[in-house]
Amino acid sequence: MAIENVTLNIYDLVPQQQQQQASDSTSSSSSQQPQQTSRLSNFFSGVLTPLGFGAYHTSIDVRGYRYQFGAQVGITRTSSTLAADSQRFVPSNAAYRESVVLGQTWAEQGEINAVIQRMRDGQFRGENYHMANRNCNHFAETFATALVVGSELLEEGGNRKLDKFPAWVNRLARTGTSLGIDDGNACDVLEEARAAAGLEGKVGWDLMSSASATAKKGGLTGASTSAKRSQKKELTEKQKAALAKLKKAPK
After folding, report:
1. How many Cα neighbours within 13 Å face the side chain of 235?
2. Predicted local distance difference test score (pLDDT) of residue 229
3. Tens-digit pLDDT profile for residues 88-147
4. Is the pLDDT of residue 246 over 80?
5. Cα–Cα distance for residue pair 88/145, rounded to 1 Å
6. How far is the C-alpha of 124 from the C-alpha of 221, rounded, in Å?
7. Is 29 left (phi over 0), alpha (psi -120 to 50) or beta?
8. Which of 40, 41, 70, 244 has a CA positioned 20 to 30 A from the CA of residue 219?
């Protein structure tokens, strides 16, 4: 399967009254989504946004699907190409702002499904949603890191973050956690991305010697893709060597 963009969608969480005025003439299928926001988030959006502490909702698009995380519903998947379906599970007071391509992934759909399942089996369950410690933005960054960074998370001291993930998107939550709004389940993006990619406990491993074993155990193609690339390169070298022998052979 071809390489695919991993795209972050960003929505402003606007105060309810402002959102109502903007949507009086529009019916939204997102009403199916349980409210993920509260008076507190409306205060953040209406008062703190000018200070650089806005409240935002995010989702990830990859291979024709949209993934997002919310209270009660947990991780959801909808079509990213069908307009009506793509708006399901988006908070009712969310206003689309922009989309950012975070990077690319070689992961095929089955591998993406495995990443999502590991996240569901881990900490990204609906009951674990927390506005400051584990929200939709934590999910988006963790999921995208697993897909884009992949096998680089195996490196010793592998603390590479997604350079294109906007820091301001989750600034409010990080600030809240740092000020003591901590339920003991704060998201560690890099560690949880390793776990989601099937690489937990494998930091420092020789990627090439363990790539096939990782692939067999269902690890993300951050490892298996690197192996595929190397195999392709090795095959090319063999072809070159064969061609060289042919050229040297007596006519």
Report:
1. 6
2. 43
3. 999 999 999 999 999 999 999 999 999 999 999 999 999 999 999 999 999 999 999 999
4. no
5. 24
6. 21
7. alpha
8. 70
Backbone angles phi, psi at 103, to 5 degrees: 160, -165
**Cα separation, 209 vs 44, whole angstroms:** 49
Q: CA angle at residue 77 from 76 to 79, to 5 degrees?
A: 145
Which tens digit of pLDDT belongs to each residue from 140-190? 999 999 999 988 887 765 567 899 999 999 998 888 888 888 777 899 999
Question: Cβ(80)–Cβ(142) under 8 Å?
Answer: no
How far apart CA 175 and CA 180 sit, in angstroms, is 9
